[in-house]
């Protein structure tokens, strides 16, 4: 039955996606189709509905809509330009300064919005034309924006870690946040090194020095936005509030910044912001419900155990197994958003990782990192398409300038995968 269920699951899911059916509906229909092999129609439908509803009965999920709302408020609150000015200040006096500004800006804004697409659009939409105006090659500028866009998805607070914690059975969100902070900063540094080498080789200009008055204003304007990260991480680590409570604090603080401090958001715009947050929350919650049904179907039909035996039977060498998982996850990331990929494939690969003795925090880190890399990987990574569209450069022309960045990112990916201490040293140091 395992083989038949696997074939039905994959074929129905692929067919529905090819027909343009939304991914959550495709997941639910494919899962229901597969479970009909083992259960009568009436029982299968009743059980499926029950599992989908029960999967949303989790206190941890309360954090998701709040973090989404906080990110949307910050997006609409004009925060991007203030972070761009700060990024210019940080990376402004080294070769390729505007490229470094783009990288730092993507990291800062992405961590606040928890969205690579939002960062790529808000930061890259400003920085790519500016770099071209200052004499940078437009393809290089686009490559920098694409390579650094997903950084914010691993820098806390990130909804990806919350979803992984839920699906993995309660892996510490605080530990995942701390691991993500380290890996996100390493990703930023890696891209900056590559950008520096290319900029030095091509003699790209260095930005003009800011006056002391501008420096002071830029820092003062940006600090309140960055303080959001400090509040969330500091509050969780000191025990003032939990990760779930931190999401509500994020919303309150974001509203204060947008409505009171910066005054970049009007009260009459709030209904639109709330509606957008509800829409995005509904999509994610439906994805979670549908994915839980798929997880139940796979567990009921024995698919994860069969796949685990298949992979472990292929080789007992942990390095080979991790390389296989890495390759599969990158391929998945090219065709699927990070959230549904976490929901679907965590129940498949986590048991294999645990059999190999891999720490769940380390597994969650390289699991999500792989998916993030997949979003900017050819031929169909969504981040690649968005970055290409923003820069108005054909994807074919971006592959060559992206190659040095891909090489550096893949080296980082392998180091994170095979050196767990990189992910674990800060959580262990903090006793998480």
TrEMBL record:
Cellular-component GO terms for this entry: plasma membrane
Keyword set, alphabetical order: Cell inner membrane, Cell membrane, Membrane, Transmembrane, Transmembrane helix
UniProt topology in membrane: Multi-pass membrane protein
GO MF annotation terms: transmembrane transporter activity
Stretches assigned to the TRAP C4-dicarboxylate transport system permease DctM subunit domain: 11-422
Transmembrane segments: 61-84, 104-128, 140-167, 173-198, 218-237, 243-262, 283-304, 310-331, 338-358, 364-391, 403-426
Entry keyword annotation includes Cell membrane: yes
Keyword Membrane assigned: yes
Location(s) in or outside the cell: Cell inner membrane
UniProt xrefs under NCBIfam families: dctM (TIGR00786)
Protein name per the record: TRAP C4-dicarboxylate transport system permease DctM subunit domain-containing protein
Source organism: Salipaludibacillus neizhouensis
């Amino acid at each position: 039955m395992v083989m038949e269920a696997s074939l039905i699951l994959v074929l129905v899911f692929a067919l529905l996606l090819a027909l343009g059916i939304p991914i959550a509906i495709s997941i639910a229909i494919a899962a229901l189709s597969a479970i009909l092999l083992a259960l009568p129609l009436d029982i299968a439908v009743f059980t499926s509905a029950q599992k989908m509803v029960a999967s949303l009965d989790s206190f941890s999920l309360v954090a998701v809509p709040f973090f989404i709302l906080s990110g949307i408020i910050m997006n609409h609150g004009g925060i991007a330009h203030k972070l761009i000015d700060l990024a210019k200040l940080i990376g402004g006096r080294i070769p390729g300064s505007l490229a470094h500004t783009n990288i730092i800006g993507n990291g800062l804004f992405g961590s606040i919005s928890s969205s690579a697409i939002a960062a790529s659009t808000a930061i890259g939409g400003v920085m790519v034309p500016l770099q071209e105006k200052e004499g940078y090659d437009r393809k290089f500028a686009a490559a920098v924006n694409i390579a650094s866009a997903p950084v914010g998805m691993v820098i806390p607070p990130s909804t990806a870690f919350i979803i992984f914690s839920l699906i993995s059975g309660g892996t510490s969100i605080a530990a995942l946040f701390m691991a993500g902070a380290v890996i996100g900063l390493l990703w930023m540094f890696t891209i900056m090194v590559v950008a520096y080498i290319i900029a030095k080789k091509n003699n790209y200009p260095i930005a003009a020095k800011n006056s002391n008055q501008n420096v002071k204003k830029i820092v003062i304007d940006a600090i309140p936005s960055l303080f959001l990260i400090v509040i969330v991480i500091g509050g969780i680590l000191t025990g003032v509030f939990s990760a779930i409570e931190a999401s509500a604090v994020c919303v309150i603080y974001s509203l204060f910044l947008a409505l009171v401090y910066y005054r970049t958001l009007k009260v009459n715009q709030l209904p639109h912001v709330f509606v957008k947050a509800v829409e995005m929350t509904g999509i994610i919650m439906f994805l979670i419900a549908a994915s839980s049904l798929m997880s139940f179907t796979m567990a009921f039909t024995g698919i994860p155990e069969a796949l685990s035996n298949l992979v472990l039977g292929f080789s007992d060498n942990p390095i080979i197994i991790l390389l296989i998982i890495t390759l599969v996850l990158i391929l998945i990331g090219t065709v699927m958003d990070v959230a549904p990929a976490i929901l679907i494939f965590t129940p498949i690969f986590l048991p294999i990782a645990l059999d190999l003795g891999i720490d769940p925090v380390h597994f969650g880190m390289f699991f999500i990192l792989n998916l993030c890399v997949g979003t900017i990987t050819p031929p169909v990574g969504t981040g690649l398409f968005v970055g290409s569209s923003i820069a108005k450069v054909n994807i074919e022309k971006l592959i060559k300038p992206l190659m040095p960045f891909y090489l550096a990112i893949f080296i980082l990916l392998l180091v994170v995968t095979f050196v767990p201490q990189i992910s674990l040293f800060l959580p262990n140091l903090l006793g998480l």
